[in-house]
Amino acid sequence: MEDQLWSWLQGEEWKSPLFLEVQEALGMGKELDLAGEEIDSAQLTQALHPSQSQGMERESSWNRVLKALSGALVLKGGGDPQDYFAAYDQHMRYALQALALIRGKEAPTTWQELSNRDFAFIPPVILYFRIDELNDPVLRQLGELMRQEREFKLILVQTQIHATVSRLGRSVTLNPHWDVGFWGLFFRTYFVLQIPAHLPALKTEVQRAVSSPRPALISIYAPADLALSELALRTRAFPYLRYDPEEGLCWQATLDLSYNPEPRQLWALEANQEELNLGHFLFRQNPSAFTPFMGDGVPVRDWLEAEGTKPVFLSMDQQKWTLTPTQQEKILSQIQLWGNLQAMAGQAKGGDPGLVVDWEEKIDLERQKAVTKALQTLSAKLLGVTSVDFTGSELKLNLGSHGEETKTKREKSRLEKPLPVAQSSETAWIETPLCTACDECTGINPRIFAYNQDKQAYVKDPAAGPYADLVKAAEKCSASIIHPGAPLNPKEKNLEKWIQRAAKLG
Amino acid sequence: MKTLHVDQFTAGYCPEEAGFTLERYAGEQPRWCKGCGDYAILVALEKLLALKKIPSNQVVCVSGIGCSSRFPYYLKTFGFHGIHGRALPISTGVKLANPKLTVVTVMGDGDCFSIGLGHWMHAVRYNPNLLVLVLDNEIYGLTKQQTSPTTPLGTKTKTTPKGPYIPPLNPLKLIMGATGVSFVAQTATWMPGHVSATLAKGMEHSGLSFIRILQRCPIFSPQAFGQGGKEREGFCFLTHEQGILLEDNLQNMAESLPHDPRDFSAAQALVQQTEDAEKGFTPLGLIFQALNRPSYEEVRFRSISHPSPEEKAELLLDKLKPFEI
């Protein structure tokens, strides 16, 4: 997919409208009708027919005009920014000469003086980056390219997102989430487009960004398997967004989310009405990172809205999977990001009740209320406050009358511990990624414990053997990663003794 | 008589269509004790070979003697169960005979640091492109609890019932003093993710990648390394962008220490500290890596000229010239 994008960019000629007209005139031998465009048509006509009096000099100038106007300068990123600046300046010099030739003495002498209208005549300078890792050189190059005045169109192509990102050792949990598209928002004059490659509108959207009279940052997710791209959009893992500062001054006008499925809802739904979340995307990318879940749990959406429940990930085939703290955090963070995007784009705002609204707007209002409520619940849970007000122009936090004290125990533990206990203490479970495959537990009871396809152990069925086996396995486990939970059979022999031994394990 | 060509043999042994799954690399059912850290290393190695998509007929696993040295049986690749302490000369020979093969050498602490110490130092100096794993449980386990070179003071064994009389060998200090060292890393079996990452780093290195893997013997040295990381404090992840990167689930398992593995002096200073009785700690991660050292097979094949058959004939004629009648 990435190769297709690159060849498309190179093949696309990005011709300026003026060039197309000139070309047509040359082909048809007809006179140019450019009087309304403030172009010196006499000089242009003279330039078009140089043979009578102008000689070779004029002809070579005209060739340069055609070259400067004929197509975009498409360069692969990754080199020294100074080289790109030089290439840009050279491109603009030719373009200025072209304008001077067409307009006579009225043309500006430096490209900084060019108006939006002039820019529309000049093909863009496109820099193409393959960016799967946000390392120092890439950051430095992008930063240097973006902070100066030149109007580059930066196309950043990623082939993988939300991959397991390893990082240097830190004792605190810092998930290195980065959305390179959002970096464009940091430079507020940039046209920003974030788009998954499977969308049929990809080309028109990219063309729109490239032809904008502003510098542009275009972030494209182009995995080899386009189904993954579609899933990334549906699960909000890589939401479509377009930020066009030309559209207005407020965020609602400039930010567009229209290509996202159900853009007014917090969750996009599957056919069976279950919500799709980042977990589905992570699961599709790497199913072996998930281990089966035993016991009672509710899907993430219900978990956020109801107290006292345990989260579980439901895959498309309705199978339950354990969510590790890191996965929980990733899912929550991504949906929160989407919620905030909605709020900024005006998709989730409460509306003005004083207005007379028709029934369609009423329905929208109800939807918005639902989204706002979900966002409030979500944000309150994430921020550890009793309520959040999204309805006004400001974000209001209500810390409650007692502040810290009003937090429920569960909220508190989630806030204070970066890695909260993934499961209830009632269900037996294993920290599967840490399993050393030492055969200890599967040797004690192969009906309870089994290996997954990565040869790491998980609790296959906690009810398939006595509680004593769970405790023995936990005691023997060389990595201390088995959690026996609570006994399932209250009539088991010597149960008190085993409960006491389990308690010592913590 | 029909002769069996080696390709036919290997093709039957390792069908491509089997795909690069863990089963493809799994040999016999391991006979290690339950709870042994060797299982973690075996799985990590199988995963690495599958990840790198190395056909099993392109891998040779060479070992010496000991529990760890049973690796060649449990890995469905070509294997060589060598003699005590001699795994490294055999591996060097294999690599020289066919440099395209991936050679994994597995030894124990007794095997490598005691009887094989001479071979170890010289193999490091020669720097053939090998992945060398030393599984250090601070005891001779297969022969039932005798003192090994790394057995710490105070550990009662069958040969030293009151504990060893002299302090243990520090293999890190030794190898960092060896001429031509090019890759030194340390990991521990109770952190399978770290083992995998370290093995991957070692396999990517060109030259002798020495990896010491800390583990306990659940039967004869269950107390080793703080009961296999359960009790002992002082483990420390070495962090650097060129080093071993940590997975999320390892973050809280030990302290972190920034360390540049390309800095030879820093690496020497680091291993010096591991022997300090008071401030000593156990580093986990990439201790040292030199990128510019040629491997032994590179040196050998660069210096030897390989004349064509025609050139050989000419050389032969030259030699025969004095005997012309």
What does this structure look like?
The complex is a heterodimer of chains A (506) and B (325). Chain A has 506 residues and is an alpha/beta fold. Chain A is built from 19 helices and 18 strands. In chain A, the strands form six sheets. A seven-stranded mixed beta sheet of chain A has the order 1-2-3-5-4-6-7, with helices on both faces. In chain A, helix 18 (467-476) runs parallel beside helix 19 (495-505). The longest helix of chain A is centred in the C-terminal third of the chain and has 25 residues, at 359-383. Chain A starts with a helix and ends with a helix. The model of chain A is unreliable at 29-39, 50-54, 165-175, 349-360 and 390-424 (pLDDT under 50). Chain B is of the alpha/beta class and 325 residues long. Chain B has helices at residues 6-13, 22-25, 38-51, 71-74, 87-97, 109-115, 117-126, 171-176, 192-204, 224-229, 264-273, 296-303, 309-320; strands spanning 59-63, 78-81, 102-108, 131-136, 183-188, 209-214, 235-239, 255-258, 282-289. In chain B, strands 2-1-3-4-6-5-9-7-8 form a nine-stranded mixed beta sheet, with helices on both faces. In chain B, helix 3 packs across helix 9 and helix 6 (109-115) crosses helix 7. Chain A binds chain B through residues 164, 166-171, 173, 324, 326, 419, 431, 433-440, 443, 453-456, 476, 478-480, and chain B through 22, 30, 32, 34-37, 39-40, 42-43, 46-47, 189-193, 197, 216, 218, 228, 230, 237, 239-241, 245-252, 254-256, 258.
Give the arrangement of secondary structure elements:
The complex is a heterodimer of chains A (506) and B (325).
Chain A: H1 2-11, H2 17-28, H3 41-48, H4 55-70, E1 73-76, H5 81-103, H6 116-121, E2 125-130, H7 136-147, E3 152-158, H8 180-186, E4 191-196, H9 202-210, E5 216-221, H10 226-234, E6 241-243, H11 251-254, E7 255-256, E8 268-269, E9 275-276, H12 278-285, E10 298-299, H13 300-305, E11 311-314, E12 320-321, H14 325-345, H15 359-383, E13 387-389, E14 396-398, H16 409-416, E15 429-430, H17 440-444, E16 449-451, E17 457-459, H18 467-476, E18 482-483, H19 495-505
Parallel strand pairs in A: 1-2, 2-3, 3-5, 4-5, 10-11
Antiparallel strand pairs in A: 4-6, 6-7, 8-9, 11-12, 13-14, 15-18, 16-17
Helix pairs in contact in A: 4-5, 18-19
Chain B: H1 6-13, H2 22-25, H3 38-51, E1 59-63, H4 71-74, E2 78-81, H5 87-97, E3 102-108, H6 109-115, H7 117-126, E4 131-136, H8 171-176, E5 183-188, H9 192-204, E6 209-214, H10 224-229, E7 235-239, E8 255-258, H11 264-273, E9 282-289, H12 296-303, H13 309-320
Parallel strand pairs in B: 1-2, 1-3, 3-4, 4-6, 5-6, 7-8, 7-9
Antiparallel strand pairs in B: 5-9
Helix pairs in contact in B: 3-9, 6-7
